[in-house]
Fold:
Amino acid sequence: MSTQTTQISSPSKIVDESGRLQPYRDRYNATARLFHWTIALLIAGMFLTDWMRGAAERGSSGRVWWLSAHESLGLLVLILSIVRLGWRLAHPAPAVRGSPLVRKAAEAGHVLLYLATLGLPLAGIGRAMSGGGDVVFFGLVIPSMTGRNSLLSTITHFVHGGLVMNLLLALIAGHVIAALWHQFLRKDGTLQRML
Ligand code: HEM
Ligand code: HEM
Structure:
């Protein structure tokens, strides 16, 4: 039996000659996949280090260590995200699949995820510095450039905590649910594009 595939009018489906749905064959390249999974892992590290800091005794050296780890990994997220965005603008990704509505939603979600990986670390720097504290990057101490600043502190607490942070979690959850839906219900190979 022939395994040749034909792209039919809807870009959401690729069918073989007997009409069966075939997985997509295009894939994010190695650089895109490396950026994606490194940053995803680091974001998990951000929540873990914040949780560990919260669990350590107030005023203890452990608490300071976990905040330094949080700041160091967060700055790494910022640096990698800037490099990733620059690289991505020069290297278009394979087209997002699905109906026009699904495509728009997925693309908007991806843009928001890019914004979050840039905006949240910046707000984290603002949150640390506006409290008058230094920022630590793997042992390198960057002194506060703002000193104590209550307006900046209020804004960055809002962006780097509470509501906005919960929106990020909802965005990541939606992104993961969409990937799993493609993988296990639609079985269209979308997840393979990123593996
Ligand atoms: C994508 C990157 C980051 C994520 C996802 C993230 C996540 C978080 C979360 C969930 C909290 C707890 C918020 C709350 O409950 O109010 C937090 C607190 C904090 N983050 Fe980040 N963070 C990131 C990057 C950074 C960076 C780059 C810095 C500084 C260089 C930073 C500094 C802080 C500080 C100072 C706090 C408050 C700690 C305290 O309450 O004493 N974060 N972060
Ligand atoms: C914090 C964690 C994550 C972030 C920030 C993130 C971010 C992104 C971004 C920005 C894209 C678009 C890439 C581009 O077009 O340049 C993307 C694509 C993708 N992500 Fe994630 N991601 C995260 C976690 C995950 C996880 C845990 C999974 C799997 C369970 C996943 C599966 C995918 C897939 C399959 C695509 C390709 C979608 C397509 O082909 O249309 N991501 N991700």
Observations:
- Strands lie at 5-7, 14-16, 135-137, 140-142.
- The first helix runs from residue 30 to 55.
- Confidence is low (pLDDT under 50) at residues 1-13.
- The radius of gyration is 21 Å.
